[in-house]
Amino acid sequence: MRDDDKAKSVLKEGQFFSILRQSIMDGMKKVLGESGLQSTFYYLDLVEVFHRPAEFHKKLYSIFGKGSLALERTILTELYRRVNVPFKERKGYEFADYVDLAAFHANEGRLEYL
């Protein structure tokens, strides 16, 4: 593969963030519905933590407790579908680890998503 062809397949700067944000929105909407999504965003000010997956997890956990894990699984399934990688649960992984792995795959082995 030529260098310029490879560059086309790697996400542009900020593109993964956009994919992550949309995956979060769609995943939460699937589980909570539109009104639940809007209420949660307002209550937790989630817009501020989209780009910080560990902080995002903490905020979700603060309201949903262990129920946040099912919500996160739905979000991660959306995210992995969008980066064209099958989602597979891994022992010891947390939400931020899965996001990092998706970013790694989306950028062909480079961990860049901010």
Present the secondary structure layout.
Layout lengths: L2 H7 L5 H30 L8 H12 L2 H16 L12 H12 L8
Helix pairs in contact: 2-4, 3-4, 4-5
Secondary-structure class: mainly alpha
Number of structural units classed as domains: 1
Total helical segments? 5
* Pattern of helices and strands: HHHHH
| Shape type | globular
What is the CA-atom radius of gyration, in angstroms?
15 Å
Q: Kindly state the number of beta strands.
A: 0
Q: Roughly how much helix do the residues carry, as a percent range?
A: 55-70%
Could you name the ranges where pLDDT drops below 50 across 5 or more consecutive residues? 1-10
Major β-sheet annotation: none
Tell me the span between the first and last alpha carbons: 26 Å
Instruction: Tell me the β content.
Output: under 5%
- The overall pLDDT, averaged over residues, is 83
Explain the overall architecture:
It is a single chain. The chain is an all-alpha fold and 114 residues long. The chain has one domain. It is built from five helices and no strands. The chain has helices at residues 3-9, 15-44, 53-64, 67-82, 95-106. The longest helix is centred in the first third of the chain and has 30 residues, at 15-44. It is globular. Mean pLDDT is 83; it is low at 1-10.
In short:
By secondary structure, this protein is mainly α. The protein has helices at residues 3-9, 15-44, 53-64, 67-82, 95-106. The protein contains 5 helices and no strands.
